[in-house]
Amino acid sequence: MLAIALPTGSTFAQETYNHWSIQAKGGVNTISGLYKSSTDRDINYEAGGAIEYTISPTIGIGAEYLYLNNDHDWKNFTSNIHQTTVFTSLNLSNLTVPYRSGFWKNVNTYFTVGLGAGIGDFESTDPLIIESTGDVVNLVNVLGMNFEYSINKNIAIGIEPQYFSNTNSQFNPKPYQTDNKNFYTVNLNLRYKIGSGMHMRNKKIEKCTYNNLPSNKPQETFIAPQVVKEEEEEAVIPLEPDVVAEVKKIDTIKVEVPTKKIPLVEPEVKPIVNEKPITVKAERYKTESCNKNLKEYSLVVGSFAKKDNAINFSNKLKNNGSEGIVVENKEGMYRVITYTDSNIETSMEQVRKLRPNYPDIWIAQCKVKQE
Predict the structure, then answer these.
(1) How far is residue 366's CA from residue 67's CA, in Å, rounded to a whole number?
(2) Residue 300 to residue 15: CA distance in whole angstroms
(3) Which of 185, 184, 187 has the alpha carbon at shortest distance from 148?
(4) Could you tell me the pLDDT band of residue 259, with boundaries at 50, 70 and 90?
(5) 157-166, 228-237, 298-307: least confident range
(6) Dihedral of the CA atoms 129, 130, 135, 137 (nearest 10)?
(7) Which of 30, 235, 248, 343 shows the smallest number of beta carbons within 10 Å?
(8) pLDDT at 103 > cutoff 60
(9) For residues 362 and 279, is the Cβ–Cβ distance under 8 A?
(10) Domains of the chain with CATH codes
(11) Range 62-80 burial, b when 16+ CB lie within 10 A, else e
């Protein structure tokens, strides 16, 4: 089918995606109910196109137009049909085998289901079926399977068999019609995915994003201090010599001295706050500098669709005394990296230090794409 992407985009974790694509298609068709015998069946041509909006890596919606020509030697029957349908497509590859590699990562299988209408004219020289010819308006249901291969981030080719179920009995001329009045088609497709950046139709379901990686650092536990109330003590004061003379039978006098009570103060207990999850994602880069400048784990502080914006941000980092490396990934996004290391634990510690200045910082696991 023809698929098209709209000019607006969506943002996924600092990454903006295009959604619209357009498709041109051409192929062959046959009317299944026109013949009593399959050996009499004629094959005719068709052409059309489609526009599609890919909502996510698994689903899209679109509209399709087809022109179907039918010129049959049998009973000198001819027809020209213009048919328009709206459809939904499901990416069965991403739904069933989301983590693919090698050749198969660029291959996708789409199941399409749609509803529409067609208008056509039918002619025949057979006097028995003249009464059923003329202009016909028809409702149609469509089912299809589109096998598509992405040549690059903008171009894809495919092959698509389809089945059209028609509701108007005049699609088969009387009195030769059978119970089946449907079309079978096979088309070759050429799709253009609109946009210079990343496209949702190329996005795969992520496998390498972890919200919490294990850490060897022991968890600190706060222990509230215990407050002990001191008991009041009795103070014993010795008598002066002259007092002893006057009170002979008393060795000491017990005097109660008031003591200051220590108020109970509830300790301030600070709750343990879980840190923001650290994202680690595998990436493939085009730039050759990845081999000599980048290690396995790199801290990404900015993502840009345009290279000039990435360079300007990198220069600001360098002016502030920080590292600023610009690399391009396989989907055409430019990453700005400020730190790189071969140890994941060291990289995660750097994320915690830099996060106050860069709240959306994340770790990219470097994989070089060979051009």
Answers:
(1) 49
(2) 12
(3) 187
(4) low
(5) 228-237
(6) -30
(7) 248
(8) yes
(9) yes
(10) 9-202 (2.40.160.20), 280-368 (3.30.70.1070)
(11) bbbbbebebebebbebbbe
Structure tokens at 224: 């509230």
Report the DSSP beta bridge partners of residue 334. Answer: 304, 328
What is the model's pLDDT at position 360? 87
Report angle CA 180, 184, 189 to the nearest 5 degrees.
160
pLDDT reported for residue 178: 46
The better pLDDT of the pair 359, 9 is held by: 359
Measured CA to CA in angstroms, residue 334 lies from 198, 201, 260, 262, 340 at distances of 11, 19, 70, 64, 16
Give the up-direction half-sphere exposure of residue 63: CA atoms within 13 A in the CB hemisphere: 5
Amino acid (1-letter code) at residue 254? K
Q: How many whole angstroms separate alpha carbon 205 and alpha carbon 207?
A: 7
The span from the CA of 2 to the CA of 66, in Å, is 10
pLDDT at 1: 42
Residues 192-199 have a mean pLDDT of 87
